[in-house]
Write a structure and sequence with these properties.
The chain is of the alpha+beta class and about 130 residues long. The protein has helices at about 10-45, 55-60, 85-90, 110-130; strands at about 65-70, 70-80, 90-95, 100-105. A hairpin with a 2-residue loop joins strand 1 (about 65-70) and strand 2. The N and C termini lie close together (about 5 Å).
């Protein structure tokens, strides 16, 4: 039974029957969305209004990891590059070396997340409804 559920009991019964398939479909959709988010962040970090590309190492440092623990699926998208927070949010002040900065933000992660949020919800909803 897929589609619209008329009451919580119907939904619970469908989840019980198709729960494993729904979790697997959720994981697949999450992997796809996380990779797509990394690609969009990398595009956004390829020049204004995002940060400019100098060597390409920062852009290449973005990665996605999807984790599954029982029925819970999570995705982590990020970078280990030290300049990530400064580029996204900017920095005004003195750093640990005593240098003064007035660096404006060059958002590239935030806009990508904002654009992918609704798409992720649709993809996850579709994956779960197909599995049920």
């Amino acid at each position: 039974m897929s589609g619209v559920f008329q009451n919580p009991t119907e939904l619970a019964a469908a989840l019980k029957r198709g729960g494993h398939g729904a979790v697997a479909a959720t994981e697949t959709a999450m992997r796809h969305a996380a990779k797509a988010l990394v690609v969009q962040v990398q595009r956004n970090a390829s020049g204004r209004p995002g940060p400019r590309v100098i060597t390409g190492r920062y852009r290449a440092s973005w990665q996605a990891e999807v984790h599954r623990a029982g029925p819970v699926v999570t995705a982590e998208v990020g970078t280990s590059a030290p300049q990530g927070r400064r580029l996204e949010f900017g920095f005004v002040g003195v750093d640990s070396l005593g240098r003064h900065f007035n660096q404006p933000p060059f958002p590239h992660l935030g806009p990508a997340v904002d654009s992918f949020g609704p798409q992720l919800v649709r993809e996850l909803g579709h994956a779960v409804s197909e599995a049920l």
